[in-house]
Amino acid sequence: MSAGSCQVYGSVSGEDINSYPKYTGSPLLLFLADLWLFLCNIFYLPCIFLPLTPWPCGGLDELYPSLANIFDICLHCVLFVLQLVFLVSLPLFIWLPFCVYVLYIVTALALNTLICYALNRGIPADGLRSTEDDFSRRWNRHEDEYWIFLNGICVGRNWLQNNVDRISRTFHRPVVGVHNKTTGVIFDIIQCLIQRCLLYATNDVRDCYVLVRRALYRPEVKKVVLILHSQGGIEGGMILDWLLDEVPQDLIRQLEIYTFGCLANYFNNPYRDTASCNAAMRYVRTGDITGNIHNRSILHIEHYANKRDFACRFGVLNFDHSKPQDRRENRFMGKVLVSPASGHQFNQHYLDTMFPLDPTNRFTREPREGDFMDTDVIVSRHNRCEEDRPVTILDAAGLLDAGTGEVDGTSVNSVLSGSAQNMKVGLNMKLKMHQMSRLWLYRNGGRPVS
């Protein structure tokens, strides 16, 4: 990746009391807006699967030609053809007698369900856990942490197991996967539209909410890490709303959220008090720091996105903070780390490129020249376009501050010094992507100090 080809957007500061969240608007208007957005980005649909290679993690990569992966891909191809034919045939067969028409629909849906059962079967009710072996038993035990993963579209049992195993090897923690069951790529996309427009909560949303809530209330757990991919970002946004409704503030601050290829159209993270909100509004208008402008309920939210990934263009990147906002436009809370790459598969296109493993597939290796985490980044202005106030170091070091941490007992300074955080600098700050990523500090069993 070329220097400066990657971008980081800080979370939005301040609140506009005259605006309303887009997701509270008319479901019909939301659907029409999503349909238009879908059509505008339709040529990026193949980028969900491209590039097909490489496969640095072998069988863990979704498109690697293992028997299990080939079986899943073949079933998805069959589902795609059946669903496409079914949807096209619905208006053509409307002339049939009512009972025959209904029987046709029921038969088609039953066949779809039967094929999907082959993909989704065998998931335990309490979630799918990462594989444990002799190597993982030697990891440092992080008994005060609980890691949860919620998958995206087109994921059956095989790919979910590979996802949680890849997360576990990257960060040296046990991971519990909550299964967002696939119904085939076309029906999954339709379900995403319904969830975005109607805030419809499926069973996996409820299951994941219960799991996160229980973890937050466990006295021995001091940190809950929720990793979301694709459609899981939509569902994670709803889960977060429910948690903000019910869980005490001191507990919910133990939650950290990291998304990849997020399809959501909003992500909430309110201020904890009016003073912080007012300080942030003053900072947006004048650039003056008069209080804690980052005092939000969730301390750490990061969104990782590939610029040519259809899901990101349909989701998180549609709410690019450098664009002017209107009254119907959402503000996506959390910093956004953008790669110019293509691809939507969680292991192959995100973790393999952003958190690459060494040849043993047991440790996350250090960044090399050309890696995503080694690139020089553009710290992008997230205030409105009509304002020419330059980005300050606090923009980068507030919600863009990854903190410091330890990896295998060795202290790692991943960000700028505290004295530098009060200096105003322009847009030409030279920073590496890994300095912006808090999640990077968790690799190989490390943990941020803050």
From TrEMBL:
<feature type="transmembrane region" description="Helical">
    <location>
        <begin position="101"/>
        <end position="119"/>
    </location>
</feature>
<keyword id="KW-1133">Transmembrane helix</keyword>
<feature type="transmembrane region" description="Helical">
    <location>
        <begin position="73"/>
        <end position="95"/>
    </location>
</feature>
<protein>
    <recommendedName>
        <fullName>Alpha/beta-hydrolase</fullName>
    </recommendedName>
</protein>
<dbReference type="InterPro" id="IPR029058">
    <property type="entry name" value="AB_hydrolase_fold"/>
</dbReference>
<keyword id="KW-0472">Membrane</keyword>
<feature type="transmembrane region" description="Helical">
    <location>
        <begin position="28"/>
        <end position="52"/>
    </location>
</feature>
<keyword id="KW-0812">Transmembrane</keyword>
